[in-house]
Amino acid sequence: MRFNRKMSKVYFSEDLDKILETIDYSKLGKNVAIKVHFGEKGCTTYLDPEIAKKVYEKIISLGKKAALVDCNVLYKGSRTNTTDHIKTAKEHGFGFAPIDILDGELGEEFIEVNGCKIGAGIKKYDSMIVLTHFKGHGETGYGGAFKNIGMGLGSRAGKLQMHGDLKLSVIKEKCIGCGVCKAHCNYGAIEIINGKAEINQEKCVGCSMCVAVCEQRAVNLPWAEVASEKVQKRIIDYAESVLRLVPNQIFISVLKNITPECDCWDIVQKPVMADIGFLYSEDIVSIDKASLYLANKKSEGNFDKINSVNKNIQVDYAYEKKLGEKEYELIELK
Ligand code: SF4
Ligand code: SF4
Fold first, then answer.
1. Architecture label for domain 169-220
2. What is the pLDDT along the chain (334 residues), one digit of tens a residue?
3. Global pTM value
4. 210: CA distance to ligand 2 center in Å?
């Protein structure tokens, strides 16, 4: 898992077949977890299941076993428990492969590595393909490979631990008391008092769903860099623990349907730029850095501005922890 300091390779193509032809599969074992995000019900821009299907079929053609894996989410939605999660995954077109939700029916099963609570089912697998839909993310700046395995493979308790420091509040002057935020808050943390929304800090878990649904932009994200930085660094700590548990990993990132927010939102989002293509690397730091570079190149720097979060934190911190390289060679496959 730990890299000696050298330049890594990141392969780019608009054609997934070219990527699949180039991957060195020798580091994969016999039982491969393909880490995906199935998309919350209502989201329309999640990872295209046809992409996951091609990856799965390639692994199976090599005589290996494989399953699509994820953990349950923190908030109440269509992927809160394993039964609903699998149902949503199938409705979203992922029924072609075994689906394995790794943290038990209610997200209660985890193993602890360096204080990180990782979905216990990961122990069954000897290797992993981290298949990531790259996009923006209001809390962490962007969602790439680190977020896919860091936040994604945390159990519910682990996700709560990572999100712990957010303190949202309502800007009274902007709030019209419509109650939409209250209807979408799955933690009963919002009340309408004297015609204005109020957030109960004791109940709020910082999922920021209220931010996404408020048309008045009345919910204030105190994205004090400190709070965001803490969450991002915790994600890297979790990703490190996952890399320890399953050291044989291949990273494929899909730079298509790049939206401002995560696929956890049950809302339709418009992509913020034209599709770019696919990246493959054995270096998680390099693939996230290359994803950011290509998204900014394609959008003429606008990806960096889709939120105010510093998008270098994850890569810099992971580099400090020697999880990979920031220097990489970008090799285009034609
Ligand atoms: S959705 Fe926005 S405007 Fe409506 S009650 Fe909530 S904070 Fe106020
Ligand atoms: S962030 Fe908003 S929606 Fe989420 S728990 Fe807190 S008040 Fe509820």
1. 2-Layer Sandwich (3.30)
2. 445 567 899 999 999 999 999 999 999 999 999 999 999 999 999 999 999 999 999 999 999 999 999 999 876 689 988 999 999 999 999 999 999 999 998 888 999 999 999 999 999 999 999 999 999 998 899 999 999 999 999 997 788 788 776 678 999 999 999 999 999 898 899 999 999 999 999 998 766 678 767 888 898 866 554 478 889 999 999 999 999 999 899 999 999 999 999 998 888 999 999 999 999 999 999 999 999 999 999 999 999 999 889 999 999 999 999 999 999 999 999 8
3. 0.83
4. 6
The bound ligand whose nearest atom lies closest to the alpha carbon of 189 is: 2
**Angle made by CA atoms 274, 283, 10, in degrees to the nearest 5:** 45
Rounded Cα distance between 60 and 30, Å, is: 10
* CB of 181 sitting under 6 A from ligand 1: yes
Please tell me the distance between residue 265's alpha carbon and the centre of ligand 1 in angstroms.
Answer: 17
> CA nearest 127: which of 52, 26, 57?
26
Fold of 8-163+225-332: Rossmann fold (3.40.50)
Ligand nearest to the CA of 210: 2
Domains 8-163+225-332 and 169-220 equal at CATH topology level: no
Centre of ligand 2 from the C-alpha of residue 259, in Å: 21
- Domain residue ranges of the chain, discontinuous segments joined by +: 8-163+225-332, 169-220
